[in-house]
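User: We ran a pulldown and think these components assemble together. Before we commit to crystallization trials, I'd like a predicted model of the whole complex to look at. Sequences follow.
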Amino acid sequence: MFDLHTHIIPGIDDGAENLEISKAMLELAVSHGTQGLAVTPHVVEGGWLPDWEEIVAGCTLLRKVSEESGYHLNIYPGAEVALNMDILNRITGPGPYCINGGSYLLTELPALEIPPYTEDFFFMLQARGITPILAHPERNPAVARNLERLEEWVRRGVLIQLNAPSLNGRLGKEVAATAEYLVTRGIVHVIGSDAHGINSRRPILSEAAQKLRALVGEAGYRRICLENPLKIIANETVELFMEVQAAAPSGWFSRLFSGKKNIR
Ligand SMILES: [Fe+2]
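Assistant: Here's a predicted model for the assembly, 264 residues in total across the polymer chains.
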């Protein structure tokens, strides 16, 4: 499994506070079956603004720690860029801030709303040769109420990253229902732990992986947890819509979405 959304570089954002916590996070990831991960610290206009060189140096440090600990873990640099038009002064093309320095950029919406310039932001990135990966849209209530708009983004080439805890129901029934819906709709491309530490937001994908297997079968699980992440890391093309096996909807999905037609 590959985890494309983590905050493990020590002291760079609100993730790992120090190297000891970073080490413990790496150990936790490995012990739960993660083979590779991207370190994606926050990049926020007017807030956290680490240089790409700082992120790459943090990644190099974590690779060293991982090797010394005997872990078989691939670690790649990246960022989680808060959606904002001014940040485009820093992100001018593929390379810096993109996952593994390629052309895929993890970007997040504000917590509760969809800014009016969202489509323009995605378009501007794409015009510069960057493919946006939208981080955890299932957590945003404005997106959950407007899933047609989200699917239109995918149609236009935006990829979707789901948070593992969302699928597990840790963020409530509505979030879990949206997560499950997106998975069964075939528009979840990658999964991430969005880990910030070792207590509550931890770098563990294994539980969500089981849920994915139940929802979309072994092939769907492999696509989301292994094949698509490897393509992104290698800067190869990812299919926008995934054929999914019809699986019996369960849990949050059936309770909250049965009969609802809020997506085409
Ligand atoms: Fe994050």
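The two ends are 30 Å apart (CA to CA). That may be worth checking against your pulldown data before setting up trials.

User: Thanks, that helps.
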